[in-house]
Amino acid sequence: MNEKLSQDDVRKVARLARLSFTESELEKYASHLNGILAYMDKLNELNTDGVEPTSHSVSMDTLFREDVPAPSLSREEGLKNAPERREGFVKVPRILDEH
Amino acid sequence: MKELCSLTLSEAREKLVNREIGAEELTQAHLERIAAVDPKLNSYVLVTPERALSDARESEKRLAAGGAAVRPLEGCPIALKDIFVTKGIRSTAASKILHNFIPPYEGTPSKKLAEAGSVLLGKLNMDEFAMGSSNENSAFGPCRNPWDTERTPGGSSGGSAAAVAAGLCLASLGTDTGGSIRQPASLCGVVGLRPTYGRVSRYGVIAFASSLDQVGPFARTVTDAAHVLKAIAGHDERDSTSVDAPVPDYPALLHGELKGRRIGVPKEYFVEGLDPEVEGSVRRCIAAMEKEGAEIVEISLPHTEYAIACYYIIAPSEASSNLARYDGVRYGLREYGEGGLEQMYVASRSQGFGAEVKRRIMLGTYCLSAGYYDAYYLKAQKVRTLIAQDFRRAFEKVDVIATPTTPTTAFKIGEKTDDPLQMYLSDIYTVPTNLGMICGISLPCGADSKGLPIGLQFLGRPFGEAELLDIAYGYEQTLGFRGKPVI
After folding, report:
1. Contacts of A66 in chain B (CB under 8 A)
2. Count of domains observed in chain B
3. What per-residue confidence (pLDDT) applies to B253?
C-alpha cells in the first residue's frame, strides 16, 4: 500500500496541532490516517478544472453593524472559568527567560 | 389519561392550556421518569431539576393568567444536546477539555426556547465535539438505544434522539454537521430535522465545522418538530451566517396533501451497502406515497459517491482550526506538562481531547498544512460545488427527494469503533445534504425483523423547510410508523 504518511510525518503534524502521542499511538494514528487518506484519493477521479470552490455556505456580502458600545461581560465573569488567575488576569507559565 | 411522558408536545400543550394538567406535574413526571429510566440509557449528562421546576412554576403562572400571556411552548419539558452553551449550567460538548466549563453567557437557540416558555430538563449526551456517529466518543460514556440497549442510538446527537424516543423529554435540540440529527433520529425511531444552513443562529453553539454546522429539533411528530423550529429559527445579529429571511408559521402550514407532489428518488442512494430490509421498507413507503397521488420521479445525483471523501476533508479541516482555541489558558482543562507555556498547551490538549477528536484534528491539520491545501481542502471545496449542483438540478424537476436516512438500522456498541472509515461510511446518505446546503428530515417509516426502527429521509430546497415539513406530515398522517420502544 502506498503510505502517504510515515510515523515521522505524523509526529510533525502532531507538533503543528500541539498534540503529543506515545510511540504506539503514533503507529495507530499513522495507520488510520493512511487508510482515510487513501480513501480521499477517490476525489482525484473527478476532473474539477474550471469548477469554482464553495467558499461560503450562504451567498452574502460582509455584514456591518453600527459601531455602538454595548454591555459585555464583566472582568469577574470573564475570568470565572480561568484555571489560574492573579490580580484580574489569567495566569500562565513563564514565557520569557529571566535574563 | 394517557401517561404524561408519552404525550406529544402538541398534546401536552393543549392539555396545559386547557388546564387538564399542570406544568409542574408534567415536569415532575419527566424528572421521575429520567431518574427511573435513564440509568439504562445514559442519555442525560446533566439533569437540572431546580431550573426545570422553576421554569415550570413560571409557566404555571402564565398558564393561569391565560390568553396572550401563554407562550408557544409553554410548560413543555425539553432538553439540549450538551453542545449548547447555557449560562450558569455546565456545558461540555462531552469533552474532558470542557469538564468544568460553566458558561457566563447564554447561546441563542436555548435562549429562544426558554423565551418560548419551555422547561429545561437538562443537557444531553453526544459524541465529543459532535464528532462521531454512535455516541461512543463521549467523555461521559456511551448513550444507549432505547429500542435495544446493546446498540448505539447513533450520533453525534445520540442523547437527543434517545431521550425523545424514551419519553424523557417532549422534544430536544441537536446539531447536524454531517447527519448528526437525522442519523440518530433514524436509529431511535423519532423525527429529526436539519434546517438549511443559516436558518437557525449558532451563537453559543460549540463549533465543529463552521461551514456545515446547523441546529435543529428532535420530536416525536412532524408537527412537534415544526413548533420547535418556529421557536428557534430566524436572524441573529450575533451570528452573521444566520439569514435575515422571514420565519414562516411552520405548524400552520402543515396540510399533508401528497397529491401532485413530485418526489424524486435518487438511484445513487439505492446501491451496495444498503441493507435489504431498509431498502424494502423505504421502497414500500415510496410506492405508498404514489398511491396517495404523489408523482415519483427517478433522479440522479451523480456525485453522491464522492460526498464522504469530500466531507471528511472539509469537516476535520475546519475542526482543526476551530479546536485550536482549547489551549488550557482561559477556560477548561489545564495540564502543565513539563513546565513551559507550549508544554502546557500540548499537555492540556493531549489529555483533554479523546481519540476521535485527536484523529480529526490530525487529519485536518494535515489537509491544511503547507503543500497539501490544494490537493485536499481546495479539491474538496470544488467537489462540494459539484454536489450542490446535483441538488440544484434535481430540484428543478422535483419538490422533495426521498431516500433512506441510513444504510442500516442501529448497530451494536463496539461494532465499528476499530475502523474509523466504516463508521464514517454510515453517514453516506446524510452528508450530501450538508455539503449541498439544503435541508432534510428523517422520520420513522417501519421496523426491521429485529424490531429496530427504519428511517425515511426527505430532502428539501434551501429554506424550503415549510414544504419539507408539509410533505413529511402528509407521509406521517397517512402512512407513518407509530411504534415506541418499551423501556
Report:
1. none
2. 1
3. 98
Terminal C-alpha separation, chain A: 52
Within-domain flag for B125: yes
Question: For residue B188, what pLDDT is reported?
Answer: 98
Please tell me which of the candidates A33, A51, A63 has its beta carbon nearest to residue B386: A51
For every residue of B391-427, DSSP letters joined together read HHHHHHH-SEEEEESSSSSPPBTTSSTT-HHHHHHTT
- Residue B166, domain extent: 4-260
pLDDT band of residue A29 (cuts 50, 70, 90) is very high
pLDDT level of residue A59 (50, 70, 90 thresholds): low
Give the nearest partner residue to B359 out of A29, A63, A92, using CB atoms.
A29
Reported ipTM: 0.93
Distance CA A92, CA B328 (A): 9
With contacts defined as CB-CB under 8 Å, which chain B residues touch A17?
320, 349, 361-362, 365
Residue A96 CA to residue A35 CA, distance in Å, equals 42
Could B379 and A39 be called an inter-chain contact, meaning their C-beta atoms sit closer than 8 Å? no
The predicted pLDDT at position B480 comes to 82
In CATH, what number is assigned to the domain containing residue B99?
3.90.1300.10
Q: Is residue B355 part of a domain?
A: no
Catalytic residue among B180, B186, B242, B426: B180
What's the pLDDT score for residue A1?
45
For the record, the C-alpha cell of B171 comes out as: 422534544
Residue B275 lies in a domain: no
Q: Does any domain span residue B156?
A: yes
pLDDT of residue B433 exceeding 80, the answer is: yes
